[in-house]
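User:
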Amino acid sequence: MVIDPNNISSAAHSKGKAVGGERASASKQANPGTETQKPGVDSVSLSGEAQAIAKLESAVASIPDVDKSKTELIKAALRSGQYNIDSQAIAEKLLEQDDL
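Assistant: Predicted structure:
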């Protein structure tokens, strides 16, 4: 809702009169197309930026959380005994996380 201080008369404020009727008529003048809208029907339109964000969100949602090809390679290396686990490096990384 946008309030335009130029459309509010100072006489209505000083006498304590309601300016609701003035606002409604000012609204109709500012947006003449709103009169054709059906009562009780709401509509929403998104800005271009919001639409772009929505597209990005759906693109990110379609990306899998796990890289299955990399997971299969690691599983195969573990089964064959070719995957070496550096327990010292793992311990250091765990301790680094404690410092955060």
